[in-house]
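tool_call: predict_structure(chain=1)
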Amino acid sequence: MSAIERPGFSTQLPKGVQLYLPDEAARKRHVEGRLLEVFRLWGFREVITPSYEYFDVLAVGTDEALQERMFKLVDRETGRMLALRADITPQLARIAATRLRDRPKPLRLAYVTNVFRYEEPRVGRHREFYQAGVELIGLPKPEADTEMIAMAIEGFRALGLDRFQIDVGQVEFFRGILETLAPDGATARALREALRRKDAAELERLVGALGPPPATGDLLLALPSLYGRAEVLERAAKLVNNPRSERALENLVEIHRLLTAYGLVEHIILDLGEVRGFDYYSGVAFEGYVAGLGAELCGGGRYDHLLGRFGPPCPATGFAFDVDRLLLALEAQGVEVPVRGPEVFIIDFTEDKTAALALSRRLRGLGLAVARDIISRGLEESIAYAREIRAGRVLVIGAPGAAAGTARVLDLATGRETVWTLAELLARPERLIEPLPAAGGVRA
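tool_result:
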């Protein structure tokens, strides 16, 4: 009795994981490959980190809320608690602060990996999901943050997405206001929550209860509306009234200037009331969105405090794309992702298979994917199978009624076909991928 036939046996996957079948896996790899190429062109080199580590080590660089959502298990050998990574940035921060501590700065690190979080699945996000991102370590200047935003835009473009925007904020701007107000912890959290929801009425109630100086109150109440293009910077400059917020605004003005120099400012929306990632980021923070999908597809920012938890303090900035959400965005925008099978599929009706094996070997030597139809079946069925596996061309050797020593080549995309002698193909196998004459259709 097979496993599927066993009473009580279920093939259902656990909640929060996803299976990628061949076409889906090909689309995923395409997205990851294009993003890695963008990262490479900007000088970043890939690193690969372990899926799990000791929990107490990961916890050093992970906030308590995320620690609660880690998948944990016990190391049988040591009895220590292990955890699947819920965020790769703390891993890279530790590596930069220890293994790469003495390497010349800046470090440009890239990754494509899976992370695990015990949370309810939502739009394009499972409990295991995939990220592609970079970390730029050792540069405190606005140019570094600008480079992250520019790379995010280039990533969207490389995938063929349009109608996207990057929302850029500066968490130090709000910190400056909190520093002036000095509210208790509960009030500070309430203010952040009201800003997160863009709840002007609740924000007004909280400001009324605090009774701050008029200028500070006006600035706080204006935060939800400090959202838009370059004019936001001018409006904020007229309202800002504390040194910390002034420095944050100056930083954002410089980043906006650099993005203008890059020619990318059309994709930028400024948001000085953005407080997501408040506990994680130490300066500029940004998120990327596309029309038609109500969730961020990428996010990142500056996190200068993190490396100091593992070693000497060091400035750092980075961002990551959510691969599964990018796949949803591509589908929503009708962007075709190439899904290909083998370039050549060989159907061989001869007994000795010598020519088919020789051609397979030579074509693979040229870097082409070749599959052979080893099952005995009719030509129509074999061609149907070739279409199913998304083969580019079919090579038929020894078909009934065909002239001895010849082979028929069918292009499944165009319907064109031609006939070559086996000697011609063996002498120059690249003929199999050259354009075929515009004559006839597929004759099965």
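agent: Residues 411 and 435 are 9 Å apart (CA to CA). Proceeding to next step.
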